[in-house]
């Protein structure tokens, strides 16, 4: 996995990480998440898939729906939380 | 506050030092020594005339100004401008008062919006999550896949490290573990094997017996209810150091409601599948009784076709259809005269035309069975060849349904290695494999042949599929 800080360099992945840090129980589609973070669905989908590759998100894929949720790995969740607290206090 | 200061500066001509007090006269800012005079004068004035905006002489002799921040009869606080350069005129005070009113309204509006956002947003996200869960659960009718999915989604939504889904047995005396995921158990994939639980024992038994939800610091257990209790979902150990709360309980109860509907649908589908499978087996037995080995195939044949499909990672729906088709691959032969069917050696053109025509007619006996609709093309086209030289329609390559291409390979292999009363040219498995390989790309789909060869190389292939 790339360093968490690298994920925060891109504006959309940053918004997604902030969203899941605030709502870790959420399971939603790319379209749904794009509404919550106010970004274009296509761009959000790309960023979500990138975060899935990095094991930060989980992809729940079926024939009819493609949904995303936050990882269950404590260490990753903790690292994101710490990064946000340290570097993005004003958010 | 900066807004007030700027507006007052516009009116008074110079940016004032502006202080705000709540209705009790307390300020959020630290008061400077020279402003204390103004504050003490304000307190005196406030007692006398709290709702009036006024300029007043401070005890130090300088002029100050105060404006109550109020709406109706409610006073929320005061804006105090100590030591102004000049005494503002009445119309200037009125203007500042209007501005304070306007600003107060805007501030209240913003506060309400923030409150609404803070209240509604988490619920809207939770609602959207429930909707997504509903869609995820409705997208499968396979019971094993469904239960596993419910467990995974429960872990996710509860942010827990453990989830167990147990269903009551037919006698309603025991809970049978259907999915238990324990992420604390880091070995393997987190799945643990659990024994069944008596309904009169433990937390899960209590919930299954009484239908009551149990919420504690480290666990949350809800019943699965559909008219009657059918099982329980239990989540344990939050990923974070927090405890389970009532919001979690609401969410898990909603998830359980969705889960019950999905489980019931899957159970009905399973029953339907069993009925369909039973009907096909009866039909196969009927045909077999008329002329053994002519219309139906052996169990290993079905196994082989399914093994190839699994090797090719076909979707479950395709595999199910293939399973049905493999039970009745030669229904099309039903109306082919026995003398042609049992003829040794090649067929004449005339006989071949009869086979093609009667093959389609024979399949018509399956058409009234609605559930076999997706199966019919597999049976119909499994005599097609990859190079387009087969029958009934001369389809070529990928025009032939993939399950029909699989059935073609399995059918040819079985025909070569099995004994039939009307043929005596049975060959060995190795010879048959060579024959299939030789016809790759002409008679058979190369991808199917590759998958078949992989299956054939697996240990015990000859024992599993053919004895």
Q: Can you walk me through this structure?
A:
The complex is a heterodimer of chains A (91) and B (467). By secondary structure, chain A is α+β, with helices and mostly antiparallel strands. Chain A has one domain: Winged helix-like DNA-binding domain superfamily/Winged helix DNA-binding domain (Arc Repressor Mutant, subunit A). Chain A is 56% helix and 14% strand. Chain A has five helices and three strands, in the order ααβααββα. Chain A has helices at 4-7, 11-22, 30-37, 41-53, 74-87, and strands at residues 27-29, 57-61, 66-70. In chain A, strand 2 (57-61) and strand 3 form a beta hairpin. In chain A, helix 3 (30-37) packs across helix 4 (41-53). By secondary structure, chain B is α+β, with helices and mostly antiparallel strands. Chain B has three domains: 2-95, Beta-Lactamase, CATH 3.30.450; 140-268, 2-Layer Sandwich (Beta-Lactamase), CATH 3.30.450.40; 291-465, Hypothetical protein af1432. Chain B contains 15 helices and ten strands. In chain B, a hairpin with a 2-residue loop joins strand 3 and strand 4 (74-81). The radius of gyration of chain B is 40 Å and the shape is elongated. The mean pLDDT of chain B is 82. Chain A binds chain B through residues 23-29, 32, 36, 58, 60, 62-65, 67, 69-70, 72, 74, 77, and chain B through 122, 125-126, 128-129, 132-133, 135-136, 138-140, 149, 152-153, 155-159, 161, 183, 239-240, 251, 315.
């Amino acid at each position: 996995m790339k360093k968490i800080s690298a994920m925060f360099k891109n504006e959309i992945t940053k918004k997604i990480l902030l969203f899941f840090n605030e709502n870790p129980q959420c399971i939603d589609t790319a379209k749904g998440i794009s509404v919550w973070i106010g970004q274009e669905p296509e761009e959000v989908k790309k960023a979500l898939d990138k975060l899935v590759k990095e094991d930060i998100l989980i992809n729940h894929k079926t024939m009819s729906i493609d949904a995303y949720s936050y990882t269950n790995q404590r260490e990753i969740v903790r690292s994101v939380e710490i990064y946000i607290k340290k570097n993005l206090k004003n958010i | 506050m900066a807004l007030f200061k700027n507006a007052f500066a516009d009116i008074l001509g110079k940016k004032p030092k502006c202080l705000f007090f709540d209705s009790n006269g307390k300020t959020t800012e630290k008061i400077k020594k020279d402003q204390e005079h103004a504050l003490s004068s304000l307190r005196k004035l406030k007692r006398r005339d709290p709702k009036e905006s006024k300029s007043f002489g401070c005890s130090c002799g300088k002029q100050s100004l105060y404006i109550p921040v109020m709406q109706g009869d409610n006073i929320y606080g005061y804006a105090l401008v100590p030591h102004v350069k000049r005494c503002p005129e009445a119309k200037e005070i009125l203007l500042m008062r209007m501005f304070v009113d306007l600003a107060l309204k805007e501030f209240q509006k913003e506060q309400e919006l923030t409150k609404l956002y803070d209240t509604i947003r988490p619920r809207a996200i939770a609602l959207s999550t429930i909707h997504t869960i509903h869609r995820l659960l409705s997208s499968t009718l396979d019971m094993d896949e469904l239960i596993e999915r419910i467990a995974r989604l429960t872990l996710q939504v509860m942010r827990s490290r453990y989830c167990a889904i147990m269903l009551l047995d037919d006698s309603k005396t025991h809970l049978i573990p259907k999915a238990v995921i324990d992420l604390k158990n880091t070995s393997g994939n987190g799945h643990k094997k659990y024994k069944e639980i008596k309904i009169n024992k433990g937390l899960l038994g209590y919930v299954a017996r009484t239908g009551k939800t149990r919420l504690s610091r480290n666990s949350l257990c809800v019943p699965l209810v559909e008219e009657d209790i059918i099982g329980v979902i239990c989540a344990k150990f939050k990923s974070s150091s927090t405890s389970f709360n009532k919001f979690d309980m609401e969410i898990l109860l909603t998830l359980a409601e969705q889960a019950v509907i999905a489980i019931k649908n899957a159970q009905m589908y399973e029953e339907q599948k069993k009925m369909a499978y039973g009907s096909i087996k009866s039909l196969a037995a009927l045909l077999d009784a008329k002329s053994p080995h002519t219309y139906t195939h052996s169990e290993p044949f079905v196994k082989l076709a399914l093994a190839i499909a699994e090797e090719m990672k076909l979707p479950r729906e395709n595999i199910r259809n293939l399973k049905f088709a493999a039970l009745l691959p030669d229904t099309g032969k039903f109306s082919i005269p026995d003398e042609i069917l049992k003829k040794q050696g090649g067929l004449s053109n005339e006989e071949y035309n009869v086979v093609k025509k009667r093959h389609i007619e024979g399949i018509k006996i399956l058409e009234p069975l609605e559930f076999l609709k997706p199966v019919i093309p597999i049976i119909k086209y499994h005599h097609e060849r990859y190079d387009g030289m087969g029958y009934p329609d001369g389809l070529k390559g990928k025009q032939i349904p993939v399950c029909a291409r699989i059935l073609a390979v399995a059918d040819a292999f079985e025909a070569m290695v099995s004994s039939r009363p009307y043929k005596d040219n049975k060959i060995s498995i190795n010879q048959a494999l060579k024959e299939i390989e030789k016809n790759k790309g002409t008679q058979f789909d190369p991808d199917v042949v590759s998958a078949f060869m992989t299956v054939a190389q697996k240990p015990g292939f000859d024992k599993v599929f053919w004895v």
